[in-house]
Amino acid sequence: MNEADNTEAEAGKKKPTPPPRYDHIITPGFVARPGAKLPVTVHTAIFPAGLLARIQRAWNSNPKARSPYLPAYALRELVEQVEPAVLAVESRLGDGPWLHALHQPHNELPLQLALEFWITTHVAPHQDDVDWPTLVKRAMPLDWAQSEVDLLARGRAVNGTAIPHSRTFSLLATYIAGRWVDAKLALPGHTAKGFSVLGPLTDRGERSVYSWPPRELNDDEAYGLWTHRTALRVVSMPHDDRLVLRAVPHIARFGGAQPAYIPRRGDGPPSATVLLYLPKGALRDIERPMLLRAPVTVTGKKEDMRWHWQPGIARILPSLPSSRHYPNPEKVRAEPRYAAGITRSDRDADDPIAMLLHANGYTYITRTDLSDEPPAYNTHGHPADTGLQPIDHLTLFEHLKEPLAELGFDPLSALDKTPQRRAPRLTPARPDAEYLIELWHCAPKTYQAVHLALTRLLNYQHLGERTAEPGVHDYVGPTKITLLLRNPGSLVSGLTRPPAQAETEARKAHRKLVREQRAEAVRMEFPEADRIIGALVEIDKPVNFAMAGEDDPKRFLKDNLPQLNRHVQCLHPVTAPPKPNAKSAGLKPFEDSDIRCEDVQRAASSVKDLLRSLGHLPRLPAPLGVTGTFELVTVHIAYTGSWMIPFVLRMDSDGNTTAQLVASASHPQEVPIPLEELPRALTSGRGRMRRRDRAQLADFITQALALDCHAERLFLARAQTLRNKEVWSWLQNPHINPDALRLPGEECSNPHLTAGRHPKDLPGLRIVRINEEPYEIPLAFGANLDDEPDDLANGSPIDAAVNAGLCPEAAPAGADLPYKEWGRYSGVVPWNDHTFLAINPRSDTHQLPKTVSKYAGEDQNATRHGANPTSLEIHVSFQQPRDRAVDLAAYVNNLRRCHLHTDTPTRLPLLLHLAKLMEEYIG
Q1: 856 - beta bridge partners?
Q2: How far, in Å, CA of 600 to CA of 593, rounded?
Q3: Using DSSP, how many helices (H) and how many strands (E) does the chain show?
Q4: In angstroms, what CA-CA distances link 430 with 479, 482, 918?
């Protein structure tokens, strides 16, 4: 087809509907009304002082203690599981109240038992000669005090940030949730006979209200239960003196069939959470209906799976006055519908109701009975999808305005939009680089999928197989690739697990021996290369290794292949035939091949990610107004056991990207190295320091700021790793005073400190704090609030700015929403002069029409996939006089789309995203 034909064909196509233009941004949330009060009578108890001193001494003598701080998290979890009357448990045992409750518990036996188990299991297991139960019993009863507190009371930091009292963070969400349950508030999603149930406590003050009872759902032979969950949480924003309450809708999923597989999370055995439904409360039979969390330990798979209450519950349960609420966990596993109260007779109606809380990775058994054939057991996932639509968030927001107004809360005001800058055009930092990739595979279709990915999706031309070197293929395109076909045989098979009955040390020794033997075999077959190459390794799915009783070799490959100068990217085998008539496009054949579309897409993603690890990175663009060489810098901290591994990443506009680890006893001299050399350094154990070495860490971060340098640079500070009060307290909301820098390790709470460093003292330096915690940051949606059309001009088209909020479809007012138009929004939204919300565009995989709601309509809507990009908080903390905060925020937001290895915007900006990916090489 020539150019004229193309023009004619394009002219015959229907023009796409222009994207909507939104005049306001809605952030679903509520703020405490100025002057409003919410007085509540609270009962508090302090931790027994004499017992605390004895416990601390025992902990200090514990040879396995990794920190000077007591493991209070374990005690908090136990108390939350056995004493629902307690609304909040503080982690600082000797600093103020320990327990908070609206009513003093009538029976302190559950608390006594929880203390006994915590001490003997977590704090002092080495002191088996100490009579801890007697010591705990002598410390009881607790000293309870009653006081009236204002849950809306708050202070104001010097930088203008609201400082709610700790009791506000701990109790406000629970108090509001309890009021709604008591008042039988009808939340969106309730069925005709539905009601609300109070959810279990969490460790960050969040409390949820569940719509009850759950609903049954079937989809393509998958069966499960689901319901709506509304999560309440108190948050604060930098330089905002308002108390912000977030109410976020979620989908809660429960297992409805016998589980087949529950994956292991972390180093311990697999575990799962069972929620117990208590229609009249837990202890006194006069409380509100609620859910109690009860964790189980899982062994085996499919028909051989067994459940046991975790040791804390199992040991305490016989003595609990509420033990009748805890059913046999094996019965919950084997008969989930009966345990959920679905298939019961009237005489069994009073039996406890318990349900498995579904999590990603769980699969369930489906039995098929066919004539003349023995029963077959298939597996399936959960039919419900957790993703919600903008209509769901906005429906809940509008629904809660009236009940929250009665408690002193007003809705957050709509925000004005701001012009957005286009993401820069990307070019490779090293366009003439050549990359060597080994494809370790056994399935012939795997190479075919990789070949199609290179030639059809990634714009490479296949130059053919080398005559003198069979199995070696050359490709040329955006860069040059040499592909070597290798057969690893059994080197990528599952690793033999130790016997189940073996002791802990024996299990460790067995795994170490198996890995050493496999490492030697790999080294013999694939000797150390003289240059860094990529290894695209075909391995089976984790669930298949688990079903075979073997360990997944992926972790082994990540730990060992970098020592052979190979970077690893794993790819599941391509074996399944395509289905031309499948409903899913991914299952259909790719073009005219016998490979599924989804397999070619997977291969393309794997190749691009492997090229990224080999150094195929974009050339860094500079912010608006910056000329000459510009540098982007960050410090990332990874953790493993009692160690932390901090490293600096630097990327400049000349195309160089380097990493530098902290000096250690085993490697006292650390210099900047190319980023592609970092995996080998990490897997060899370099750059580790003890978690307690905070002063050394603060000095390392200070050196990364390069205070004596005058070069144009931007330091990205990730709040989740750096704003610890012992590391860099200036990054915390109450202390982050813009353009008045305090260095890592400096104390910020002392009011008599002198002013910090200013831009005139540090020319060229810029600092932007990134906060990605989803529970802290409000979502944002576009809306037109009146009948006036949006004025696109909003000023002149500055610097090729494009309008905010472009999305492929707008939704007219519906579901009783008081907006002319509403929908997803993407771009940067100013919260105040220094704080911005950044929202990524909708992913191409999210094609569900915005009028589809999981609150309204048929239950099958719950099976459909919807999602909203979570906001990222960008805080311009330190800038030069010629900079504009909105320009720096837009620049950092565009760095989330500054990738060559993916077309999907990432959660974190470029350098932070690369740093996070390096954690896969830290065992």
Answers
A1: none
A2: 10
A3: 21, 45
A4: 9, 16, 21
Distances (CA, A) of 492 to 407, 419, 652, 779: 60, 51, 38, 43
Instruction: Kindly state the tokens that stand for 272.
Output: 């799962």
- Collapsed DSSP state (helix, strand, coil) of residue 806: coil
Cα separations (Å) of 542 from 205, 303, 380, 445, 499?
Answer: 35, 19, 15, 20, 19
Per-residue tokens: 692: 């307690």
- Across 865-871, average pLDDT: 82
Rg (CA), the chain: 29
Distance separating alpha carbons of residues 500 and 488, to the nearest angstrom: 29
Nearest to 439 by CA among 448, 428, 426: 448
Alpha-carbon distance of 183 to 602, in angstroms, equals 51
For residue 365, list its beta bridge partners.
Answer: 379
User: Do 341 and 353 form a contact (C-beta atoms < 8 A)?
Assistant: yes
56 in Cβ contact with 162 (< 8 Å): no
Q: 132-139 vs 109-118: helix axis angle to the nearest 10?
A: 140
pTM: 0.89
Contacts of 204 (CB under 8 A, 6+ apart): 233, 775
User: CA-CA distance, 113 to 116, in Å (whole number)?
Assistant: 5
Is 389 in contact with 850 (CB distance < 8 Å)? Answer: yes
CB 86 within 8 A of CB 292: no
Report the b/e string of 696-731 with b at 16+ CB within 10 A.
Answer: ebbebbbebbbeeeeebbbbbbbbebbbbeebbbbb
The packing angle between helices 444-452 and 597-613, to 10°, is 70
DSSP 8-state assignment for residue 302: G
Closest CA to 398 of 409, 407, 411: 411
Q: Which helix (H) or strand (E) holds 301?
A: none
Using CB atoms within 10 A of its CB, is residue 672 exposed (0-12), middle (13-18) or buried (19+)? middle
Give the closest residue to 637 by CA, choosing from 542, 775, 765, 731: 731
Contact (Cβ atoms closer than 8 angstroms) between residue 628 and residue 439: no
Tokens 């924003």 correspond to what residue? 237
For 124-169, what is each residue's pLDDT tens digit?
A: 888 888 999 999 999 999 999 998 999 999 999 989 999 988 888 8
Decide: 236 and 161 in contact? Cβ < 8 Å.
yes
Q: How far apart are CA 213 and CA 225, in angstroms?
A: 10
Residue 92 pLDDT grade (very low, low, confident, very high; cuts 50, 70, 90):
confident
* Residue 542: other Cβ atoms inside 10 A: 17
Rounded CA separation 98/134 (Å): 21
Yes or no: say if 655 and 674 are a contact pair by the CB < 8 Å rule: no
501 pLDDT higher than 60: yes
Residue 543 phi, psi (nearest 5):
-65, -30
Q: Give me the half-sphere count of Cα atoms (radius 13 Å) on the Cβ side of residue 543.
A: 13
Q: Is 90 exposed, middle or buried (0-12, 13-18, 19+ CB in 10 A)?
A: buried
Could you tell me which residues are beta bridge partners of residue 229?
210, 250
**CA 400 – CA 406 distance, rounded (Å):** 10
**Bridge-based pairing state of the strands 533-538 and 434-440:** parallel
Alpha-carbon span 220 to 587, nearest angstrom: 16
Q: For the chain, how far is it from start to end, CA to CA, in angstroms? A: 54
- Check pLDDT > 50 for residue 238: yes
CA-nearest of 159, 213, 181, 170 to 80 is 170
Hey, which bits of 642-764 come out as E strands?
A: 643-652, 657-661, 673-674, 689-690, 712-718
The 3-state DSSP class for residue 248 equals strand
Provide the H-helix boundaries in 706-846: 719-722
